[in-house]
Amino acid sequence: MTCDRVKELASGFVLGSLEADEMIGIEDHLATCLSPHPEIEELGGVLPYLAISLPPVEPPAWLRESVIAAASADVVARRRAGVTGSESKRSAVAMELPGGAQPGQAPRPVAAEVAPSSAKRGRIVSLAAVRASRRTVTSWGLRAAAVVLLVGFGALGASNGVIVPKASPPPFYNIQPGTRVAVLNPPSTQSQAAGLAILMPSGHIYVTVNHLEAAQGDEAYVVWLAAGNGAQSKVGVLKVDGSGTGQLDVENVATSPDIWISICLEPNANVTVSSGPMVLSGTISF
Amino acid sequence: MRKQFNVSSDSFVPDGTPEGESEAELMRQVAAGEIGGLEALYDRYHAIAYALALRITMETGLAEDVVQDSFMGVWRNAGRYAEAKGSVRGWLLAIVRHRAIDAMRRRRTGYALGEDTDEVLPTALTLPDIWPEVAGRLDAEHVRRAMANLPPAQREVIELAYFDGLTQREIADRTHAPLGTVKSRMRLGMVSLRDRLVGDFEEDFTPAAPSSNGKKGPV
């Protein structure tokens, strides 16, 4: 690759639209060439302005809180995992958590204290807002897989796969039309927990989760539902066995077109408002 | 106070324009794990980030995921951000574009959107932003006018490359134009756009011959 050839291909390079061998050739040339290549920087400087040519669009309001909740969960997850690579991140946990919990102390509830501004507003971040780390493509694929697995569950009585409950199958796996399924994912890849929530049109909900960490003391895994307006309601407490498999089966749950479900590790089973870190969450969609 | 954007507003915060804390200070906060820094960055750039993600993915749900992933990429990799290498806005938008195009490619190939635990961008997407002094006097309308004044064929190839992530060869297939013509249009369009935006930038290089295959199609 010559300097003249780099100049000729500079526009395609900064746009990332060259063939792979051309991209590599230019990168190699720039890494070793002693001559300046101002054309790369000048044309590269155009790129942000291509985005700015778009009219700004306001995303849904919950996205802000979702981003902040995911970042906060990331901090807590790092701390829980004992990640020592960033002392600044560790100290940030104490700084961000009202009450100033120090590293080494029991983590303060993240769901209730996801950000200083939230704490200042004196309210708990809605479960709808912590629809964190959802991956649309993944979710739809998993939802499809979940339906297949559940159908197979009834037919074969099998219990294989990551998100298939290890314990007894749902007592109502003769799924009614209109039944909705949510794949429950953790906010962090550090967690192995995964689960399913099945909501029948009648309001009968079944939740099953695998790979839960053992709760300590009075701690309990509580299932919460939040409607689209952010109002949350307590569904119940997961019964978790020694293998980390938890299940909940509740009838007469209020349904709405847009529901987020989350499972939080609460200080005890009697809480009426979520204050513990979110372990899993998912969207129950039509 | 939280800054609000709306669809009807073309306002944006250009690089180097003081509005509250500087970008460098915000990035220092983010790198230190301070949530407030991330909040401020989100408030400053969420609308343009979402607009870009939406333009590329053409789907609100996927665009929301991309924006969240992108800000998480900033959160997790802020320590790697080097101020000397460009503006935060340019870095963030490069991440958004990269993630959005990646999401669309994964969708086409059936792969799920991956976790963004280690935001490594191609070199071409992390170019220094050398225009901070120019940004202060550019507004969105100026940029839009510069784009609109490009010859349509040149604008088309730039948009197909930037917003759709197509290679020059794919653009040639899409537009039924010879590859050499696409290369020429892209080169002329980018140089023209640079000149229109910067205006008084010194011409440091001259566009080379328009075609690598010897053919010279209509430009």
Search tags:
heterodimer, A: 286 residues, alpha+beta, 5-stranded antiparallel β-sheet, 4-stranded antiparallel β-sheet, 8 helices, B: mainly alpha, 0% strand, disordered C terminus
What's the SSE blueprint?
The complex is a heterodimer of chains A (286) and B (219).
Chain A: H1 3-14, H2 20-32, H3 38-44, H4 47-52, H5 61-80, H6 87-96, H7 116-120, H8 136-156, E1 180-184, E2 194-199, E3 205-210, E4 220-227, E5 232-237, E6 239-240, E7 246-250, E8 259-266, E9 278-284
Antiparallel strand pairs in A: 1-2, 2-3, 3-7, 4-5, 4-8, 6-7, 8-9
Chain B: H1 23-31, H2 35-57, H3 60-77, H4 88-109, H5 132-135, H6 140-148, H7 152-162, H8 168-175, H9 179-198
Helix pairs in contact in B: 1-2, 2-3, 2-4, 3-4, 7-9, 8-9
Please, could you describe this protein's structure?
The complex is a heterodimer of chains A (286) and B (219). In chain A, strands 1-2-3-7-6 form a five-stranded antiparallel beta sheet, covered by helices on one side. Chain A has a four-stranded antiparallel beta sheet with strand order 5-4-8-9, with no helix packed on it. Chain A contains eight helices and nine strands. In chain A, helix 1 (3-14) packs parallel to helix 3 (38-44) and helix 5 packs across helix 6 (87-96). In chain A, strand 4 and strand 5 form a beta hairpin. Chain A is 33% helix and 19% strand. With 286 residues, chain A is α+β, with helices and mostly antiparallel strands. The longest helix of chain A is centred in the middle third of the chain and has 21 residues, at 136-156. Chain B is globular and about 50 Å long. Chain B is mostly helical and 219 residues long. Mean pLDDT of chain B is 73; it is low at 1-19, 112-120, 122-128 and 200-219. In chain B, helix 7 packs across helix 9. Chain B has helices spanning 23-31, 35-57, 60-77, 88-109, 132-135, 140-148, 152-162, 168-175, 179-198. Chains A and B meet through helix 1, helix 2, helix 3, helix 4 and helix 5 of A and helix 2, helix 3, helix 4, helix 6 and helix 7 of B.
